[in-house]
């Protein structure tokens, strides 16, 4: 037996080189396929990090190869340095393939045939070796070098196939307008000063309202982030696009606003702030840039190193990096606008700000803007009334005795979010593009705060005023119709049709939303705003007992001027009628009687909402990883 240590050291060095090469090529593939704006410094950092870590990972197979080379039968092998490089690359390729092959697929997505089957995976591993190695030994004098070149070519080919291509089939007309869509998560209308609050300051939203149009009766169709944004981008209500829960993919057959604008030549980019809008769920469709990477090094998630880190995280801490602060999201949006906001082609940019969602932890100075004193003073008793707090909120509320402090923190989050709106609008003004841009600032849903309808600091399970009344203001190009207040009832389904009409573009045939331009000009819009949601606590409880397979406990609402009718899908719960009144900026709801003939007529409408479309996607089970992440954000019961 050859006792020289040289084969071991050389084999490890060769394998490390192979691993480093694989890391560099993997970074190239990830960079080409990425939806983030290209940044040379970030790409170089990724390449060096991936090459270093993958090189270190390849030391293990290099060590095994070195030990094998010390055997008498292999000690005379002359091509083993090239083999060592190949072994390092091949073992990492196996790791890469295995991570993709055995990873659970999201609902309604299809992988290769027999995805996850270990026998098929073994064949994928062994068959190439069984065919190529004998062939190379008999035909090619330097098999390891050629085989390594083959693997490199294969990886480069994979990289090229992953490049994000979104060609435009049309071209916008000269003078076509830009669109800046800013969605404000978990935003109550009565926490914006444009709606009458004098103790809370939202000057930048107020500016859009004063220079444009303010909708005083705008309502979300569902108090859940993902489905609500899908309604904005499709012009369809949740019961029509099939999503009533977070974490489930959008039907690929439904066209998005971003897809249609991109096809017509608009430059498209989106910058989101929470996992619930992850691009893999369909939100990235039509966007040339989709910035949903919240990690410490953007782009890492697309590499083998990042995927292995995520795999380890699934077994340790599934709650890591589920959201990011709005300032960072806005920074990225401004970087893109600065680089791409000029030129002949107009842009469609979507910026999503998640800060007002709990836990309410605004940064300075907004954390002290609306509260002075000690929120843990035992003389306060208001938090003693808080019941059934969401598990993800409990750590942030530990020891708090004054509910006013929590409300003040929420107000601070709204104020901080408004400041990010101001940064974006200021850029439009400085760049001279404000009057050439349709600016939309809108909430996706509200938030129950101080025990409204028995709900404390949460949303998602009801359709009452606190959860569905949202802020919405738009500034039309050129400041047209400045200072208009629209009191007509409007829905989030109306967003996409309005954008299409302002831009002079045709929308999809299937949209239940209606353009808001007639309402802005004073015409009647709709007799009521609609809504539907799952009653998640009941569904969860019955699932736990094994009494419910699919979540069928839904509620639907019709919001009329001055009243709200709420009906329940399940016969055991009666319908409700609520009188909505307003005192200053605040609205209150009280149960009100309703005549039976009227109740029967309204029930026919709400039952029609239950019957429309399909909720198949909302009846699917999310992956365990998605469920844990949604729980950490407060979107599912523990």
Structural write-up:
The chain is α/β, with parallel strands linked by helices and 638 residues long. The protein folds into 2 domains: 6-162, no CATH class; 178-350 and 357-430 and 439-469 and 501-632, Alkaline Phosphatase, subunit A (3-Layer(aba) Sandwich), CATH 3.40.720. The chain has 20 helices and 18 strands. An 8-stranded mixed beta sheet has the order 5-4-6-1-7-11-2-12, with helices on both faces. The protein has a 5-stranded antiparallel beta sheet with strand order 14-15-16-17-18, covered by helices on one side. Strands 10-3-13 form a 3-stranded mixed beta sheet. α1 (6-33) packs antiparallel against α2 (40-57) and α4 packs parallel to α6. It is globular and about 90 Å long. The relative contact order is 0.13.
Task: Report the span from N to C terminus.
Answer: 60 Å
State the helix count. 20
Give the rounded overall mean pLDDT. 84
What is the C-level CATH assignment of the largest domain? Alpha Beta
Number of domains: 2
Q: SS-based structural class?
A: alpha/beta
Shape: globular
- Examine the coordinates and then state which fold CATH places here, giving the name of the CATH topology of the largest domain: Alkaline Phosphatase, subunit A
Which architecture of the largest domain per CATH? 3-Layer(aba) Sandwich
Rg, Cα atoms, Å: 28 Å
Strand order of the biggest β-sheet: 5-4-6-1-7-11-2-12
* Largest beta-sheet details: 8 strands, mixed
Beta strand %: 5-15%
CATH-level-4 superfamily name of the largest domain: Alkaline Phosphatase, subunit A
Q: State the helicity in percent bands.
A: 40-55%
Number of strands: 18
Low-confidence stretches: none
